[in-house]
Design brief:
Peroxisomal Thiolase, Chain A, domain 1, nine-stranded mixed beta sheet, 406 residues, two-stranded antiparallel sheet, homodimer, alpha+beta
Chain lengths: 406, 406
């Protein structure tokens, strides 16, 4: 396969947009990506668009790519619509890479776009139900109630499948606390760090900083998760332009190479196989001929603060059970040995689900080009993204890992 | 890129299934494909699933592949969910081909599955609305009313977006009649032919034959389309196993090669650019180093009988305006020079939209292996599929063409 370069990337600010739809958000992100690559809209030869929720939020199924891209004058070229829940657009990015790496096309456009909020309906909570096996939704929610609620017969977030995912994350956090003595304060420190980073990112949905006390005192969503440890609802789009090495030479002197691209699904044998994140990372490292020690900056799927801590362990940043220590030592802060979620992550940058995968790529691309402004990491050479989506039988349905290098 | 072989394929019968869901249908088709390839479910290294309507018909969005395949014990491997309306699974087939052709994986599984009918709700008409730009639905329906209905102020299929697509096809048929003198009888002959073929196909939804008079006398849907000139609502699944040349040698002595794979989108400049079908065919022929004269058997997207006639011209089987003559000469019947839709096509085999693309591949695969039973074409060497999906601004949103050869 050929070497592939990310030549351009762009994104909208993530936010709750009262008056903006999928077309408008896509157009802004794609235009920014094209401009950064120095090409016009007729140059990409194939487009892959990841979106998770348009079917539920706007009724637009089936041909989302064609509808949003034609509006901005992109037509004729092959367009593929991909879904993998919260990993929809990192899946699109893998396909864009594959179209170029295979030699089929020289220039590919990968897009992630999501509209979760509407002025009429507010945050569309219902859409999260579609990220699991809908036939098992009720059963899953029952299993995940915290012990106190089970005992009291409390309906845990009844009717709110958003809460389903938060319950899943809370359950994992409690297990980690029990097994390794990890503390609420350690989870909260991750939220403090990511909001500091978000305050330095003009594309972040939330740009305020919070103290440890404020994070711990914010409303409880599902023990031990407070609201400030959970990613918000929002809208947005992100886009990336990928080119073959030869083509890229015409357009950039700052190439960002795709060194590894892995996608995996959940397994019925997680105990033996490891998590989706660890399996995807292992494959991506193998492709890149690298180890976790080679990574200088990383974006991970911190749908909650505890999820980020668990990912430190799954992705090989530290041994199992050592995630809390890593937090206390500040290793993953900007200025630490391995900064994680310099963008603010899902917690502060926001998480319009289908847009997240390519938005992570955008952050690493900026960092590797030295263009991340106030949140720039000192001279990173290799970056990594990890993006998880959906759930089947208690595990992520789809997880991607990408390794990029300058 | 590497040469790729379709080693196995299988499908369910297309039908209105009262008691069968997406998981059950997928399992039958995938098992048939695995069995025909002589491999077990652990051999495929990547799976791509095309589906158009599950979000609307069952609420299952986002992770359809993982939900349906894990049920039959396929997990861990990369899974990609694709949508392109009626071309969803031929898009999945292109991606499966790409994963193998690129060298990334040696064995790929492509699946199409659809559930349009439910015992409670009957045929789910609403889902067709999602194959267009939903923001333009009302406007499109107004433009497409036949002149008589516009004059009389009749609501053309109000509330039934199924009828929207039939109105589009009827509009194209009327224009062809006016311009070239094509007759209703010529359209009806295509329906007669396809129902003869369907009567020879145990997987066809409709296996009855009809006379020319019966086709013309069946209820009018949208002038000149009678019901027997329109594809039905149904459920079903189809699957194909693709392997690299080297891997395929271990499993088959009857290789069916993928020689061309093209996907295109609609254009705002159809007059200059040609239709999506003609552009996709041109690209596939270029990849294969072939011309229409090399094709011995063909499956095309006959959502209606007139659509098939127009495709004869778009795909280069005859000159523009000559489609009617081709029909009268019996060229596309089994036994003719170039048999089209030997499976019965969408008209008789049925059209569970997301399943259609891979089901077309299955028919050509059978024909090229000489395993099509009573409908076998005499010793075909090269076959082709054409599959169109959705609509943006009056043209197909996505069209694929694949060329296969023994």
């Amino acid at each position: 396969m050929r070497d592939v370069v990310v030549v351009g990337a762009g994104m909208t600010r993530f936010a709750k947009y009262k008056d903006r739809g999928l077309k408008d958000l896509t157009s802004e992100a794609v235009t920014a990506a094209l401009d950064s690559a120095g090409i016009d809209k007729n140059v990409p030869q194939v487009a892959i668009v990841g979106n998770a929720a348009a079917g539920l939020s706007t009724g637009q199924e089936c041909i989302r790519a064609q509808v949003v891209l034609r509006e901005m004058g992109i037509d004729k070229i092959p367009m593929v619509n991909t879904e993998n829940a919260c990993a929809s657009s990192s899946t699109a990015f893998q396909l864009a890479w594959l179209y170029v790496a295979s030699g089929m096309y020289d220039v590919a456009l990968a897009v992630g776009v999501e509209k979760m909020y509407s002025a009429e309906r507010g945050a569309n909570m219902g859409l999260f139900g579609a990220g699991v096996d809908v036939e098992q939704l009720r059963e899953i929610m029952e299993q995940l109630k915290p012990p106190s609620e089970k005992k009291a017969g409390v309906e845990s977030g009844a009717g709110k499948s958003r809460s389903l995912f938060m319950d899943i994350y809370a359950s994992g956090a409690r297990a980690h606390m029990e097994k390794y003595g990890t503390t609420k304060e350690q989870f909260a420190k991750i939220s403090v760090k990511s909001h500091v980073n978000g305050s330095l990112n003009p594309h972040a949905q939330y740009q305020d900083r919070y103290t440890l006390e404020e994070v711990l005192a914010s409303p409880m969503i599902s023990e031990p998760l407070t609201r400030l440890m959970c990613s918000p609802i929002g809208d947005g789009a992100a886009a990336a332009i990928l080119m073959s090495e030869e083509k890229a030479k015409q357009f950039t002197t700052k190439p960002v190479w795709v060194r590894g691209s892995a996608l995996v699904s959940g397994s019925d044998h997680r105990a033996e196989d490891g998590s989706t994140s660890s399996r995807a990372a292992a494959r991506a490292f193998e492709m890149a001929g690298m180890t976790p020690r080679d990574i200088n900056v990383m974006e991970v799927h911190d749908a909650t603060a505890p999820a980020e801590l668990l990912l430190y362990e799954d992705l090989g940043l530290c041994a199992e059970g050592e995630g809390g220590r890593l937090v206390d030592e500040g290793v993953t802060e900007i200025g630490g040995r391995l900064p994680v979620n310099t963008s603010g992550g899902l917690l502060a940058k926001g998480h319009p689900v289908g847009a997240t995968g390519v938005a992570q790529i955008y952050e690493i691309w900026l960092q590797l080009r030295g263009e991340a402004g106030a949140r720039q990491v000192a001279d990173p050479k290799v970056g990594m993204t990890e993006n998880g989506g959906g759930m089947v039988r208690g595990e992520a349905a789809a997880t991607t890992v990408h390794i990029l290098a300058s």
